[in-house]
């Protein structure tokens, strides 16, 4: 086990009037949603612990994007807008090709990358950098049990000593362990959407430079992409249509076997490179394209945030939604001075329709990336060609931002941005 702990320093004291100075909060998950919430709660004076099963921050991962006024406003209020832009991917053209690699159509950059795009791992680093001096991070451990009473929650861990907290937040993703402990088995909440997705790194055989090439056959798609300009490295994405599969989420070799079977016989001239890379991949990501639907987002003193409560594997603007909802959850806790009986229902009332609207867009992710028939592939590509028109491109951009912007943000925090910046200044 690797454990990293950061105690709250005395160099950036919270104002005495901080509304959450009496509150101890445990957050499960150190990817994006958890540290985002930690940032806000620590600004309001709470003592925050983030526990993460992985031994360290997870690097790399898929690129995530932000789009629309609500995303921009939250990033600015967090004080990370400039840093996100400094670390953005600058992804360029993404081209759909024929089997002989002849170019068929280019995808508009905004369609795939939004207003700004960044690797999930880079965003996680930014949030960790901004919180590590005021938030306790415990890596290499996980919640084992939760026992709640009228005054708090007793928590045991797989490795660490038992502790007691006022509140517990499940921000540990689509397959949330915290949700299972407090709300019941995942099978009650996960809705399979008929597709699977995989991703892994390979050598940059195609010489891509912040570009991508995409090849589709009915029900399956292969993508080669280079997001960071590294001349040596590229990423492969695989999407395929399927019935529900039974497999071990922790068995990488079993997942490789499934993918090899599903992608045998592809006509694209570069498909063999992808399959060779799959055999050697040590960083394989593999999951169903699915959504999480819970009846309610809180159970007593436990509340769900991000993918754990309203996630989608891809296409649901999940990272932007998580940052927005972290802002709202922390704000409602501050407004209620830590009374979860008031804050949790208010948080849910504020974000439920918004989160559902964003999540709804993910229902088209599988058919969009891997259309089920040759006719639908051609229809998709004709639609992309139409988007080369400036008028239609602008109209479509507004449509893609509609769900992400369909929320009126409250201004929970009266502090000016300068105060936020001073609290987050690096030593």
Detailed description of the structure:
- Residues 23-338 form the FAD-binding domain.
- GO terms for molecular function: FAD binding.
- It comes from Streptomyces aurantiacus JA 4570.
- It holds the Pfam family FAD_binding_3.
- This is FAD-binding domain-containing protein.
- The protein is of the alpha/beta class and 427 residues long.
- The protein has a domain at 24-88 and 112-189 and 291-366 and 411-424: FAD/NAD(P)-binding domain.
- Helices cover 36% and strands 23% of the residues.
- The strands form 4 sheets. The chain has a 7-stranded mixed beta sheet with strand order 5-4-13-14-15-12-16, sandwiched between helices. A 6-stranded mixed beta sheet has the order 7-2-1-11-18-17, with helices on both faces. The chain has a 3-stranded antiparallel beta sheet with strand order 8-9-10.
- Helix 1 packs parallel to helix 5 and helix 10 packs antiparallel against helix 11.
- The longest helix has 21 residues, at 340-360.
- The two termini are 28 Å apart.
Q: What is the distance, rounded to the nearest whole angstrom, between the alpha carbons of the first and last residues?
A: 28 Å
Strand order of the largest sheet: 5-4-13-14-15-12-16
From the 3D structure, determine the CATH topology of the domain at 24-88 and 112-189 and 291-366 and 411-424.
FAD/NAD(P)-binding domain
Structure classification: alpha/beta
Q: Average pLDDT, to the nearest integer? A: 89
The parts where pLDDT drops under 50 for at least 5 residues are: 1-16, 420-427
How much helix, percentage-wise, in residues? 25-40%
GO molecular function, one term: FAD binding
Domain FAD-binding: 23-338
InterPro entries: FAD-bd, FAD/NAD-bd_sf, FAD_aromatic-hydroxylase
Protein name: FAD-binding domain-containing protein
């Amino acid at each position: 086990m690797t454990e990293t702990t950061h105690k709250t320093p005395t160099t950036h004291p919270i104002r005495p009037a901080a509304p959450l100075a009496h509150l101890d909060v445990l957050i499960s998950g150190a990817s994006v949603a958890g540290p985002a919430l930690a940032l806000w709660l620590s600004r309001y004076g709470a003592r925050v612990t983030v526990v993460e099963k992985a031994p360290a921050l997870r690097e790399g991962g898929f690129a995530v994007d932000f789009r629309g006024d609500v995303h921009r406003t939250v990033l600015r209020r967090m004080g990370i807008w400039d840093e996100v832009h400094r670390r953005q991917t600058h992804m360029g053209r993404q081209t759909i090709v024929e089997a002989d690699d002849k170019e068929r159509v280019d995808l508009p950059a905004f369609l795939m990358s939004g207003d700004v795009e960044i690797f999930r791992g880079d965003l996680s680093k930014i949030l960790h950098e901004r919180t590590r001096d005021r938030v306790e991070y415990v890596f290499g451990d996980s919640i084992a049990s939760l026992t709640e009473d009228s005054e708090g929650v007793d928590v045991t861990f797989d490795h660490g000593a038992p502790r007691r907290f006022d509140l517990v937040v499940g921000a540990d993703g689509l397959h949330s362990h915290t949700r299972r402990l407090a709300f019941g088995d995942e099978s009650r909440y996960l809705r399979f959407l008929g597709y699977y997705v995989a991703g892994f790194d390979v050598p940059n055989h195609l010489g891509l430079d912040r570009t991508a090439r995409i090849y589709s056959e009915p029900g399956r798609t292969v993508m080669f992409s280079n997001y960071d300009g590294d001349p040596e490295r590229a990423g492969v994405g695989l999407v395929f249509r399927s019935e529900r599969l039974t497999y071990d989420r922790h068995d990488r070799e079993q997942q490789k076997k499934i993918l090899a079977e599903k992608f045998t016989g592809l006509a694209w001239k570069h498909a063999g490179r992808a399959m060779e890379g799959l055999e050697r991949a040590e960083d394989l990501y593999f999951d169903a394209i699915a959504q999480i639907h819970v009846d309610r987002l809180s159970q007593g003193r436990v509340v769900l945030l991000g993918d754990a409560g309203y996630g989608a594997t891809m296409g649901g603007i999940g990272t932007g939604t998580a940052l927005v909802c972290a802002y709202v959850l922390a704000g409602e806790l501050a407004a209620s001075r830590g009374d979860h009986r008031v804050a949790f229902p208010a948080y849910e009332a504020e974000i439920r329709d918004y989160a559902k609207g964003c999540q709804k867009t993910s229902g088209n992710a599988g058919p969009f990336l891997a259309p089920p028939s040759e006719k639908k592939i051609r229809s998709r590509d004709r639609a992309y060609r139409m988007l080369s028109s400036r008028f239609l491109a602008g109209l479509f951009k507004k449509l893609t931002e509609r769900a992400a912007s369909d929320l009126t943000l409250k201004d929970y925090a009266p502090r000016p941005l300068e105060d936020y910046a001073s609290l987050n200044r690096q030593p």
